[in-house]
Amino acid sequence: MRRVPPQNFFAHDTAIIEPNATIGSGTSVWHHAHVRDGAEVGSSCVLGKGVFVDTGVAVGDRCKIQNNVSVYNGVTISDDVFVGPAVTFTNDLVPRAFADTWEITATSVGRGASIGANATIVCGSSLGEFCMVGAGSVVTRDVRPYSLVMGNPARFHAWVCRCGQVISREIDQPDELSCATCVEKQGALS
Q1: Assuming Cys at both sites, which of 72, 99, 137, 148 could form a disulfide with 154, CB separation 3.0 to 4.6 Å?
Q2: Overall pTM surpassing 0.90 (yes/no)
Q3: What 3 state SS string does 46-69 have?
């Protein structure tokens, strides 16, 4: 069922890209990855070894999805997202092997978000832009933009800059969501 990829993206010989999948230019699809019909993967992405992208999934531009991640139907990943190795996305809140019907519960990952290795994202969660999820965390509810969450269940630990540096550990969101280094860089560019 594998098709010969066009010249505008790379697919390893062992990758499976179904005929009606869309892959953006400059994207790399590595060993044993599988992109299903109806999946959309943006430009300049990296899909690591063993990544599975299900039908109906949308992945933005410049995303890095590391080895052994399954992105199931109902998940939308925005631009510039990092998904660490072995992250688990779910898509059914009441999974039963014997059920005649089931309902997909959507999950969205905002622009620039980072999800640490082995984290589990329970469906129905919305991860805000530039948030960070600590390795091994279990996300059971929405994550606010620019926040760092960790643990099981994942709880707020800090506010982070777009670059990922901790800005504040106070529960109230700071007025400025940029670290001193990023503010200095922005000032130099002005």
Answers
A1: 137
A2: yes
A3: EECCCCEECCCCEECCCCEECCCC
